[in-house]
Hints:
By secondary structure, the protein is an alpha+beta fold.
Amino acid sequence: xxxxxxxxxxxxxxxxxxxxxxxxxxxxxxxxxxxxxxxxxxxxxxxxxxxxxxxxxxxxxxxxxxxxxxxxxxxxxxxxxxxxxxx
Length: 87
């Protein structure tokens, strides 16, 4: 279940932060290009990595996705946490 979807200023990159039924967290970076008719396409396949907390997932995304940390620094309210990660 995706609980945060954060785009860059150009709206051509996005990071989704999510939780899984096994109570782990993860993230994925996507790109959107004109030649793909605007469809979101995974970039690095980070979604295979698991994290114990949503904070761990955010920290990894900020380290591994170059633009992501700057977006969160400029708009910290975008950093959302899941309402009910255990369901």
